[in-house]
Structures are given as structure tokens and as C-alpha cells.
Predict the structure of NAD(FAD)-utilizing dehydrogenase.
Amino acid sequence: MAGRSGLNLTHSEPLKRFLCRYGKAHNWLEPAIRTFPPSALTQWAEGLGQTCFSGSSGRVFPTAMKASPLLRAWLQRLTEQGVQIRTRHRFMGWDGASLLFETADGQASIRADATVLSMGGASWSRLGSDGRWADLLTDEIKPFAPANCGFLPDWPSDFTARHEGSVLHSVGLTFGGQQTRGDLTITARGLEGSALYALSTDLRDNITSEKRAVLTLDLRPTLSVDDILKRLLAQRERESQSNRLRKALSLDVPSRDLLKSAIPKDATPLQLAQTIKAVPLPLIGMEALDRAISTAGGVHQAAVDEQFMLKSRPGVFVAGEMLDWEAPTGGYLLQGCFSTAHAAANGVLGWLESSNSAIA
């Protein structure tokens, strides 16, 4: 899925700011990301023949803008290194020290010197990432929750029917002291957009605890209240409120309808200008877990050591989105997966070395 509209591998912003994108997991993931930072991920891709570039937003992509060329080169390298890839295997848990798999030919048991589990989160079940593995690690798991997801606004039932598919262009969003800006798409279920995803953690947590969260929209973030007021006052008094908004500020129909639900028709120009800069939009739910771009929850920090080895199962390491961390879209998700995988791999090397030393 990540490569369908351009494979956003990572982000080129300064590392200190980059690390802050991981929120509560910042300190937990920082050692892994500093050891394998965005520059290392870019070099790895280019080492596989896939040149990369930074877009105007700072996001880093392979020049091919697809996942398939990188994947093919990666698989070829692994094959040359003697890696065996066994498909149609579902991990079923352990039988003592052996790993059990359900295969097309029946159950298989494998004894491994070390194991890395990288089984994804709980979204996109139709692609295999269904989170069913969590039943095997119940004591190490924090429940899954949607991240980078759409939200369900508390607006009139016919609003969606009238405006589904419309886009609120370049609006400002504020919640909990955080501000973002971007396009919002009105869907059959509610609202989606990268600017909204960036606030999803706090919005989700507030809805979970308070049953709602009030998002504030700035319909004209490049204009001040005074600028808007001057434009409104320059219109003829006989004009309807809708026409004044359209002519003075080029507000589209969905934006004007949002304002109608937030302010009375007889509002003064000043009240109208102030509301345009701060439209309250109550949100009462999140998109379903399986429709979220990514998930929070998974194996929590206390269940693993510094190398992401399970404390309850020595020699078993975990990596990627099955760990309990979340980040916004923009390259942070894949970077977190690659960095934790790199850390787990180094953990495996250290584990094997210490095991061999103990035997010797």
C-alpha cells in the first residue's frame, strides 16, 4: 500500500525535530533511529540501485516513486546471500523452544538459534496485517487502536450526502495546543487528510476518555481577523451572508455550510470574521481500526530490552509496527520500522555471540 502513490521512505528534516514526531515513544525509539537514521535508510535504498530525492515538503522518495523496483532489488540481494523465503506459513506460537507454523502441507516445527518477529500492526487485514499474533503474546500487549485515521464529525446527517468527495483546501487545524495545515477530504464516513492524521493521537485519546473532541478549523489561515473583516465590510450590505463569503473570501459551498452550523444568520461581520478563523467542529468517533493507515498498541516497551528482545522469551526479538509506537505519515512510519528492525538485527548478532561464548 505504501508504494501505490509514491514510496515515502523517510523525511529529511533535522533529526532532533524528526525524533519529536514519535510522541510518547520518542525516548524509546531514539537510540534505534540515531543508530539507523534517515540518511542510512536513504543510503541503503541507493545501494540497491534506487536513487532518492527529497520533495518540497522534505519527504524522501525513490526516484522511481514505486515500491516494486526497490523490492525486486532487495529480494535479489537476499537470494544471493542465501536467504530462504518460505511463503504460505502462518506463525501459530511455540512448542517449548520450537516455533510452530501452519502451512499448506500441514504443521511445521522449526528450532531457531534466534528469531525476529515483524508481523505488523492490526490495520489492513486484507493484506495480512490483522494483528492476530497478539493472542500469542497477551501479557506483552497494549490493545491496538487506530492511528493516522479518519474521524467522524458531529454534523447534520445530510451534510455528508451533500458534500461527500469535496475538499476543504488548505485549512488550519488546532487541537490541544497543536496546529497543522492542509487539505481535508469529506468522505462517506467523515473527514480524512494528512493534517488531521497529525493530530490523531490526541484526538483519539480525547474521544476515548471524553466521548468527543472539539477540533478548531481556520478556513482562511493566511488572513487575520482584521483582513477578513475588511473584506466582508467591503461587500454591499444587501448581499446575503453566503454571497458575501463567496465574493469576499472565495469560500466554497462546504465551508459556507460549516459556518452556517456554527454561527447565526444575523451575526455581525466581526463575529463572522472571528468564526471563520475558529470554526468549532465536534468529533465523536474514529474510523474503524482496519481502515486506519497505521495502529497504536502492540508489544509495549516494558516487555522488551534495549535490543527489542522479549524479556519473557530470550532469543526472540520484535520489530516494526507490532511494537507499541505511532507516528504521523510523512516517512516516519517506515523509518521507525526500518530502524527498529536494524536494532533487532544487531540484537540478534549480540545474542548469538554471547550464546556461543557461553557454550565455549
Q: What stands out?
A: The chain is about 35% helix and 25% strand. The two ends are 47 Å apart (CA to CA).
